[in-house]
Design a protein that fits this description.
Elements (H helix, E strand, L loop, with lengths): L9 H22 L4 H22 L8
Helix pairs in contact: 1-2
Length: 65
């Protein structure tokens, strides 16, 4: 019997990656005394970029090695 990980939609994975990196960037910026509003907006824009990048380029392509 061969056990495999469950299939997870690429959009869900992209969302999870963007949330994790958003929190990392936002809390990191707050830790180094960046103003709260600036830290939130910059982290949100970066998280949106991460979401788009992972959504469009993060899929496994079976034919590529």
């Amino acid at each position: 019997m061969h056990l495999r990980a469950p299939s997870i939609d690429q959009g869900v994975l992209a969302f999870v990656w963007s949330v994790v990196f958003f929190l990392y960037m936002w809390l990191g910026a707050l830790a180094i005394d960046v103003p709260g509003g600036v830290a939130f907006v910059v982290s949100l824009i970066a998280a949106a970029g991460i979401f788009l990048f992972v959504r469009t380029r993060g899929a496994d392509h079976p034919g590529r090695r």
